[in-house]
Design goal:
By secondary structure, the protein is of the alpha+beta class. Helices cover 38% and strands 21% of the residues. It has two domains: 42 residues, Orthogonal Bundle (Arc Repressor Mutant, subunit A); 72 residues, Lrp/AsnC effector binding domain/regulation of amino acid metabolism (RAM) domain (Alpha-Beta Plaits). The protein has five helices and four strands; from the N terminus they run H-H-H-E-H-E-E-H-E. Strand 2 and strand 3 form a beta hairpin. Helix 2 packs across helix 3. The radius of gyration is 20 Å and the shape is elongated. The termini are far apart. The mean pLDDT is 87.
Length: 145
């Protein structure tokens, strides 16, 4: 998908920062905090969305919202030049929440969210079957401190 090139200025950065804190803030509240008109805020939001800078709005929940969910991080080592193919296959697994590139011994870090240990085990099995993954190490996230 081709997005228009949009250079962000300080107002855009402030707007994005406010939205990170409160993605449900009204146009009026954002305008008041930024000391601009509602129309200016709406125009900036439209441009940020059209350019792909803002991908959408999401809900943040307390860490203990779903204590039954199994969460983990998986460090992944990739063989050769198959990174793009591995990432594409990982993105096809709904339990893979996010994927990060990294440095050091591992090439990627994937965050896994599943509803149960058996689902988690199934995800690990699927990931291990992906061509191009040489090695992995997975750690369960027990609690946030």
């Amino acid at each position: 998908m081709q997005h228009d090139k949009y250079i962000l200025d300080s107002l855009d950065h402030e707007l994005v920062s406010l939205l990170r804190s409160d993605g449900r803030a009204s146009l009026a509240k954002l305008a008041e905090m930024l000391k601009v008109s509602r129309g200016t805020v709406q125009n900036r939001l439209d441009r940020l969305l059209a350019s792909g800078t803002l991908l959408g709005f999401s809900v943040r929940v307390r860490e203990d919202y779903d204590n039954d969910q199994v969460r983990a991080v998986m460090m992944i080592e990739i063989v050769g030049k198959s990174t793009a193919d591995v990432i594409r296959k990982l993105r096809g697994l709904p339990e893979i929440h996010t994927i990060h590139s990294t440095n050091g011994n591992w090439d990627l870090i994937a965050e896994i969210h599943s509803g149960s240990l058996s689902e988690f085990d199934n995800v690990l099995r699927k990931v291990r079957m992906i061509d191009g993954i040489l090695n992995s190490e997975t750690n369960l996230l027990l609690s946030s401190v």
